[in-house]
Amino acid sequence: MAVSVASCCFSVVNASLKLQSSVSSPRCFVAASLKSTPRASNEKRKALRPDSSPKLNPEKKYPGRVRDVHRDGISGKGGDVGGHQKMAFKAFGSPKKEKKESQSEFREQQQTDPAKIHDASFLNAVVKVYCTHTAPDYSLPWQKQRQFTSTGSAFMIGDGKLLTNAHCVEHDTQVKVKRRGDDRKYVAKVLVRGVDCDIALLSVESEEFWKGAEPLRLGHLPRLQDSVTVVGYPLGGDTISVTKGVVSRIEVTSYAHGSSDLLGIQIDAAINPGNSGGPAFNDQGECIGVAFQVYRSEETENIGYVIPTTVVSHFLTDYERNGKYTGYPCLGVLLQKLENPALRECLKVPTNEGVLVRRVEPTSDASKVLKEGDVIVSFDGLHVGCEGTVPFRSSERIAFRYLITQKFAGDVAELGIIRAGEHKKIQVVLRPRVHLVPYHIDGGQPSYIIIAGLVFTPLSEPLIEEECEDTIGLKLLTKARYSVARFRGEQIVILSQVLANEVNIGYEDMNNQQVLKFNGNHIRNIHHLAHLIDMCKDKYLVFEFEDNYVAVLEREASNSASVCILKDYGIPSERSADLLEPYVDPIDDTQALGQGFGDSPVSNLEMGFDGLVWA
After folding, report:
1. Residues near 58 by beta carbon (within 8 Å), at least 6 away in sequence
2. Cα 109 to chain centroid, rounded
3. CA distance 545 to 385
4. For strand 88-91 and strand 3-7, is the pairing parallel, antiparallel, or unpaired?
5. Which pLDDT value is given to residue 436?
6. Start and end of every PDZ domain (predicted)?
């Protein structure tokens, strides 16, 4: 079954991506689809610009960002009827010239009776967002890609602020907004983005823009079957659009753009590209959330998702407290459900409760107090069921990780555990998760260093998306998907490509290979590699790669050739600006460097079996 979930800011090109797996467990691919104008490009860029080919075979389209989706109540191996469903999350942008969709697709939208809209201000607070994006070129990290445009939706929340989706203004170089019934666009500024929760905050300085404006009121979490009205500027026209439906489900949901699991509201109101960032209202005219993605499958229709106001409030509170967005914390443990009575008896768990700690991430604070084999039976006094759920509202249950998302970075949680049959209470500091291979690059531009034409850069999901899996290779993909960081600041550094020159003869065909050591020293991250090279006084520069492949360069010849190589390829600098800063060692314990990157991976079973979920 081909299943996809689409975020809804729409652009010139809707890049649909193939759902495939590079390893044995099922994967879901997250596509940053805000792609725009096609251009002539080399073979490496075809994954980025699928519209550059006249005809694309859907089975050959490349995957994007990758993460696992664990659905409560779904078990079994990938491929079984009850197994994981492969899901693709797509974010769209909005073209200035877009072909009309078939009329049958638009008939699926349930149009709200205008007479039922209580007040005109109900709609006047919703604005259209015009964004120009200039994304980094991860394959050629010293430059940017060609700019493209998209449109989305936003709404006023007071104090001169607008709320929209983070993917609507990702890699923005210019953002403009237009009010309903106005023919003027106003320049907006992105104050903060919450990538994991897919929310962004905008401000508009023009006083004229705010004349007569009435901000929306944020309502409470709705109930099942409550009516919901979605307002925004989707494809199919230039004016505001209103669709109506009901709340179908409320549960922890996978967020496409942020690759995170947070509370989400499922609705059956039509959500289309361009609705992203638009509000969803209840019958009282209160905003109960932000439209942001849809679920698409041949077997389903009209399944849309809304970010609830609880997540919006968490984002705003985080920003107000810290002056920036710090992100959602995590516990940093891999948990196994305890549904089997014999398993509970073996672990000396007397009641039908608790989840087993299978793995603790070395970078989490939980590693200081939790051990493998511990059973978590309560979180801040709330009992955790054997299925990994906790009480939610009056008669519902929800995934245990929901409680963690109610905390802020730096908060302390009290865990009740059973260790070897003994009940204990422990305190754990919750912090954002450390990704060995990040889904998003802080600061926008990737790090790089060029030595004698050898281009080194950290492995990231955007780079994998650009290069495509066939070019990256199965071994590197396995590490990217399953390995965990052993210390904060750890990166997988790869040789991206070799810029051909006399000094690097014989190495021209090397690309996308992990470099493990430089002159016998284990490489911790890209900054550490740059530091080692700068401090090197040896005659030779020796790079050791995966599978015992070695590349050796003469140091003085390399230094002499660097200026010529940069000039020949039109590269402004041999390294990114962040690598000009003094190097700071990310760890104190050097014993951790004795292990290889692949020595502590999350196994295929752990990521592919629903009985095991990350908190």
Report:
1. 16, 18
2. 29
3. 46
4. parallel
5. 93
6. 316-381
Rounded mean pLDDT, 552-573 = 94
- Taking only the tens place, the pLDDT of each residue in 388-429 is 999 998 889 999 999 999 999 999 999 999 999 999 999 999
Mean pLDDT within 448-472: 91
Q: In this predicted structure, which of 107-111, 260-264, 354-358, 383-387 has the lowest mean pLDDT?
A: 107-111
- The one-letter code for the residue type at 6 is A
User: For the chain, what's the residue count?
Assistant: 615
Other C-beta atoms closer than 10 Å to the C-beta of 548 total 7
Q: Which residue has the tokens 């979490």?
A: 221
| 167: annotated active-site residue | yes
Domain spans in the chain, listed from the N-terminal domain onward? 122-209, 226-322, 333-430, 449-580
Pick the CATH number of 226-322 from 3.40.50.300, 3.40.50.970, 2.40.10.10, 1.10.3720.10: 2.40.10.10
Looking at domain 449-580, its CATH class is alpha beta
How does residue 263 score in pLDDT terms, banded at 50, 70 and 90? very high
What does each C-alpha distance from 358 to 370, 372, 380, 401, 436 come to in angstroms?
A: 10, 5, 21, 15, 19
The CATH code for residues 122-209 is 2.40.10.120
If DSSP codes are grouped into helix, strand and coil, which group holds residue 311?
helix
What gap in Å lies between CA 39 and CA 453, rounded to an integer? 26
Looking at the DSSP assignment, which residues form a beta bridge with residue 353? 385
Residues in CB range of 303: below 8 A, 6 or more apart: 248, 266, 268, 294, 295, 296
Is residue 264 within 8 Å of residue 306, measured between CB atoms?
Answer: yes
- Active-site pick, 4, 25, 153, 276: 276
Q: How far apart are CA 350 and CA 341, in angstroms?
A: 10
363 vs 361: CA distance, rounded Å: 5
| Residue from 172, 196, 198, 261 carrying the catalytic annotation | 198
Q: Is 241 a catalytic residue?
A: no
Strands 10-11 and 126-133: unpaired
Other C-beta atoms within 10 Å of 187: how many? Answer: 12
List 70, 84, 133, 167, catalytic entry: 167
Helix (H, G, I), strand (E, B) or coil at 471: helix
Domain 226-322 in the same topology as domain 122-209: yes
Q: Which CATH number does 333-430 carry?
A: 2.30.42.10
At 612 the pLDDT is 53
Whose tokens are 């690059």? That residue is: 441
- Other beta carbons within 10 angstroms of residue 195's beta carbon come to 21
Q: Rounded to whole angstroms, how far apart are CA atoms 15 and 33?
A: 5
Please give the distance of CA 25 from its chain centroid, rounded to a whole number.
Answer: 20
Residue of 294, 272, 296, 269 lying closest to 280 (CA atoms): 269
DSSP symbol at 140: S
pLDDT at 20: 38
Per-residue pLDDT of 304-333, as tens digits, reads 999 999 999 999 999 999 999 999 999 999
State how beta strands 493-498 and 449-451 pair: unpaired
